[in-house]
């Protein structure tokens, strides 16, 4: 019998992409549960939160290094942007209802809960987060998309909020962010 922990693929993938004509790079973050339409569970939330926490810390370090550099030209390998996407045909179809993250923890303002909240950690990142979306962008996936600074979508992209259908409350600010981004009239249509 094989150990499933060593044979299972990572639920979130990352890779640095060098930018042309620049010393800087972009960080590509890919939700990697295509068989589940990239629905997130506690493990995915924790991995995303940790990745975005690390990015925020790294970017904050650039500011302190800039103050110490004599010529300020050492940008090699520094991140210019983060790209968030999903593997397969969907960006993210929300929470995995067979093993959802704890909504009380995800909506909490307590520091030990905020550390594991991916949307909170995304708000700390001091560089643009670009969401590349396609297919299903539903409920919690919709909230992840709204936490991005820029969204790029394909003709296959469908946005839906199904919180009420499943008796859930938006934990990551969907009701406020959607209205701010597209206005109250258009938000009512969604």
Jot down its keywords.
alpha/beta, 7 strands, two-stranded parallel sheet, 190 residues, 8 helices, single chain
Provide a quick synopsis of the model.
The chain is an alpha/beta fold and 190 residues long.
Structural account:
The protein has 190 residues and is an alpha/beta fold. Helices cover 36% and strands 19% of the residues. It is built from 8 helices and 7 strands, in the order αββαβαααββαββαα. The protein has helices at residues 4-7, 42-68, 103-106, 111-114, 118-124, 140-146, 174-182, 184-189, and strands spanning 12-18, 25-31, 79-86, 129-133, 136-138, 150-153, 158-160. The strands form 2 sheets. A 5-stranded mixed β-sheet has the order 1-2-3-4-6, with helices on one face. The chain has a two-stranded parallel sheet with strand order 5-7. Strand 2 (25-31), helix 2 and strand 3 (79-86) form a beta-alpha-beta unit.
């Amino acid at each position: 019998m094989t150990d499933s922990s060593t044979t299972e693929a990572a639920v979130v993938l990352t890779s640095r992409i060098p930018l042309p004509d620049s010393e800087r790079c972009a960080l590509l973050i890919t939700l990697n549960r295509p068989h589940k339409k990239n629905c997130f569970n506690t493990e995915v939330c924790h991995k995303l939160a940790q990745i975005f926490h690390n990015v925020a810390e790294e970017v904050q370090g650039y500011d302190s290094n800039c103050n110490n550099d004599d010529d300020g030209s050492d940008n090699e390998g520094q991140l210019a942007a983060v790209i968030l996407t999903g593997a397969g045909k969907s960006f993210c179809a929300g929470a995995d209802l067979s093993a959802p993250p704890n909504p009380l923890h995800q909506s909490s303002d307590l520091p030990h809960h905020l550390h594991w909240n991916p949307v909170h950690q995304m708000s700390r990142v001091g560089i643009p987060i670009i969401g590349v979306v396609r297919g299903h962008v539903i409920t919690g996936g919709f909230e992840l998309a709204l936490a991005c600074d820029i969204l790029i979508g394909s003709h296959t992209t469908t946005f839906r909020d199904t919180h009420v259908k499943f008796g859930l409350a938006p934990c990551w600010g969907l009701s406020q962010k959607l209205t701010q981004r597209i206005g109250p009239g258009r938000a009512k249509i969604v």
